[in-house]
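SAMPLE LOG
Freezer: B-3
Tube label: C17
Construct: single chain, 78 aa
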Amino acid sequence: RAAEIGGLLREAKDAIPHGEFLTWCRRLPFSYRTAAVYMRVEKLQATAHLPDTLTLDRFLRMLADRRRVGVPDVADAE
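STRUCTURE (predicted):
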């Protein structure tokens, strides 16, 4: 579900003029940081093999673990 929400948020961000997404996010029932996490989940899901039962907390822990051992992030490669 986080990936689905992330996809919708990415569509909204693309439709909003540059620099106004943060202001637009203030209307959401969650923070900009949460919106950014959802968009990241959506982006990574397209390139990673993630299990369907993966929770958002576990996903964030996996990202943190990768950083600790020096595995580059997909976003860093772009």
